[in-house]
Amino acid sequence: MGEFDLIRRYFQRPAAAGVEVGVGDDCAVLVPTPGARWLVSSDMLVEGRHFLSTVDPARLGHKALAVNLSDLAACGATPRGFTLALALPRVDEAWLAGFARGLWALADASGCPLIGGDTTQGPLNLCITVFGEAPPGQALLRSGARVGDEIWASGRLGDARLALEVFRGTVALGGDAFETVRAAMECPTPRLALGQALRGIATAAADVSDGLLGDLGHILAASGVGARLDVDALPRSAVLAAQPAALQRECLLAGGDDYELVFTAPAGARMPDVGVAVTRIGRIEAEPGLRVVDASGAEVRHGLRSFDHFQE
Ligand code: ADP
Ligand code: MG
């Protein structure tokens, strides 16, 4: 199968609503919503770095798009389309069919059509760029947190890291427990509805991709504020809650790949009900830095850091 047959078979579909020209020409042509702002983000997934070669291709297709949609969610954007740049070592039709199935399922569920891309031979590597929209002045940014705001997290944190530790062989889990955390790692849900519902409510937001300490730290740095974070309040699964306290903290504070939203809102703000739990986890303070405390208010010395590709 040649390059263009491959594109036609797996990645070309009739153009979706709002897409004047999709896959098949030199450029895609999108119809912008009058007055809206474009929000654009890219995320690359490299084999061995972001995923294991043995991962189910449908889950990989899902995750490649999910991590990108998570950035749109963090900014409160409505998805409009995405491009896919794909390097493949060889044409493996079973793999491509699985990958495309996972990718399209999430694209359809999110109203985010595939509008173009690039396909080349090479070491397995995926790069997606997502395009979204938000009304002017309503994108959620990292820079808007104010002293006195409360800090919130969606869903549950830490399961993806726990799964990674099982793959690394440092933690042993039973079958069902492992499948639960493995699904969190391989099949994250981008919080698009929550992000959009937080427009006009959240003062700042980010998605938790590299670990809560780091991603909340980005909000603090961009906003010029500090915070107190209650580690005992952090939302966690029953599987994680059954682990030793030190491991729980490591997964909750420094684990990446959660793709939940961490955001700030004025104290007492009403939280939207979009079917995703949100938990209050701390407060913004004037004193710079991030102080992790336990339920009694005592400071927790953790020595943990979030993920950084060039500092390990
Ligand atoms: P060009 O040579 O003009 O860069 P290509 O030959 O690479 O275009 O691609 C042909 C068409 O197929 C373009 O519309 C491009 O956007 C689309 N395309 C290529 N690879 C992919 C892919 N992996 N997923 C979706 N669309 C793709
Ligand atoms: Mg061209």
Automatic annotation (TrEMBL):
Annotated NCBIfam families: thiL (TIGR01379)
UniProt keywords, alphabetically: ATP-binding, Kinase, Magnesium, Metal-binding, Nucleotide-binding, Thiamine biosynthesis, Transferase
Family under the similarity heading: Belongs to the thiamine-monophosphate kinase family.
Binding-site residues for Mg(2+) 3, renumbered to this chain: D26, D71, D207
HAMAP family (UniProt xref): TMP_kinase (MF_02128)
Pfam families tied to this protein: AIRS, AIRS_C
Protein's UniProt name: Thiamine-monophosphate kinase
Chain sites annotated for binding Mg(2+) 2: D43, D71
EC number: 2.7.4.16
Binding site for substrate: H50, D257, F307
Note: Reaction mechanism of ThiL seems to utilize a direct, inline transfer of the gamma-phosphate of ATP to TMP rather than a phosphorylated enzyme intermediate.
